Amino acid sequence: MSTETGRGTAAGTTATGGRKPATWRNWAGTVSVRAAREATPASREELVAAIRGAREDGLKVKAVGSGHSFTAAAATDGLLVRPDLLTGIRRIDRQAGTVTVEAGTPLRRLNVALAREGLSLTNMGDIMEQTVSGAVSTGTHGTGRDSSSIAAQIRALELVTADGRVLTCSEEQNADVFAAARTGLGALGVISAITFSVEPVFFLQAREEPMAFDRVTAEFDQLVTENEHFEFYWFPHTGNCNTKRNNRSVGPAAPPSAIGAFVEDELLSNGLFQVVNSLGRAVPAAIPAIARLSSKALSARTYTDIPYKVFTSPRRVRFVEMEYAVPREALVETLRELRSMIERSSLRVSFPVEVRTAPADDITLSTASGRESAYIAVHLYKGTPFRRYFSAAEEIFTAHEGRPHWGKLHTRDAAYLAGAYPRFGEFTALRDRLDPDRLFGNPYLRRVLGD
Fold it and tell me: Which H helix or E strand runs over 280?
């Protein structure tokens, strides 16, 4: 259903382009809001009209994606803009190597459509349920020696600002806005379209292999340097890790067998993992024994396929997460401190700790802005008390100049973040210019960006 753009109040809608609101919840269940108004624009023009109408009526505006952020970055009691109809590919430019998509397009649909056209993104994260605008606005990233975040692959974007203008932003047009809005936290406006760099589809060979914690940490720099994409999971309460190396291949495709994929990706990584986490939540004392068994359940395997089928995996077990980026050279020391903290404490951690890397980029508030970075993500099963674990982990991360992932749980505020990001003042000055009245503000942004 597209929005009403007039001032009427037709049945089933509220004034100025919105339907009667329902409660919106994020994927993890950590945020729920009931906005005064909702809008589901089907075009850039309808989006502009909805934003202008909300401004006239004194309502704040936030756009939501698929809800895969754990924070309240998109929460509002004003106008909630849903992206359901603002989807699809606008244009493919094969000569320039770009694709322009509507902001609400899910990454899953984009990847499938690109593959059909013989094209691919260079890198991506490990899930593809997010919308493209939600993914880039919160700094979603994968792992990579030379490429990482989805936002770093943007060549242009279209931004609707607080005064209803539509800005086209690129390195050539509105370059200061482009530098910031690629990871803009929803603070500068609402993205209506994004132009990504793409390349001809290629093959990746994935090599998954169990490896001891001591070996992974001792060889970490070598593993990152020798592989295009390297990541690993460490299972707390054990000395075991599972590693994954993705590198380009001439092919042909050799995906996991249907039975193998079911056992590894569905039975072990989702079905059995759900059961053991439920058990661990009910009986925390059993978690170390469960962890030892879980860490040995996944076997070594090698397979080859097109990028999105290698980079991404199904994630059906719900959890809460904190993730920090630290300087890459600090990763091993930081991880060892995290391990020591868990071993000294009475904490029982049922989820593995995920480690990825990223090269430095030039995006103002990217977690990899201006420095080569490594990411450490800690998780707990949904419904498990998490504050004690996350607080202890956060103390370690911040001692190593950590930068929190914008879409994942953390307690940092503007005072801390201004010291963590050399270009923080540049971003807030741009926000003051584009949104002086904080039309796109909410309590989360007030905490992380200041007033």
Answer: helix 273-282
Q: Which two tokens stand for residue 311?
A: 């980079």
Max distance between CA atoms of the chain, in angstroms, equals 66
Those residues whose C-beta lies under 8 Å from the C-beta of residue 177, and which sit 6 or more positions away, are 159, 167, 169, 188, 430, 434
Residues 6+ apart with CB under 8 A from 328: 224, 357, 371, 372, 373, 374
More confident: 362 or 147: 362
Helix (H) or strand (E) holding 192: strand 190-197
DSSP 8-class letter at 264:
I
Residue 235 has pLDDT above 50, yes or no: yes
Dihedral (CA of 202, 245, 130, 413) sign:
negative
Q: Which amino acid is at 255?
A: P
Tell me the H-state helices in 7-59.
Answer: 44-56
Q: To which residue do tokens 């309460």 refer?
A: 237
Beta-bridge partners for 79: 37, 61
| CA–CA distances in Å: residue 108 to residues 129, 130, 157, 314, 400 | 6, 8, 20, 11, 35
Question: What is the rounded CA–CA span in Å between residue 322 and residue 386?
Answer: 10
Dist. CA 287–CA 306, nearest whole Å: 36
Instruction: Name the residue with tokens 């868990």.
Output: 342
Q: CA-CA distances (angstroms) from residue 450 to 31, 118, 191, 396?
A: 21, 44, 22, 24
Report, as an integer, the average pLDDT of 390-406: 98
Could you tell me which residue, 265 or 349, shows the higher pLDDT? 349
Residue found by looking up tokens 């930081």 in the block? 334
The predicted-structure confidence for 75-111, as pLDDT tens digits, reads as follows 999 999 999 999 999 999 999 999 999 999 999 999 9
Picking from 190, 195, 191, 185, the residue whose alpha carbon sits closest to that of residue 365 is: 185
- Predicted local distance difference test score (pLDDT) of residue 30: 92
Looking at residue 259, its pLDDT comes to 55
- What are the pLDDT digits (tens) for 48-84? 999 999 999 999 999 999 999 999 999 999 999 999 9
| Predicted model pTM | 0.92
Residues 6+ apart with CB under 8 A from 101: 87, 88, 89, 90, 110, 132, 193, 194, 195, 196
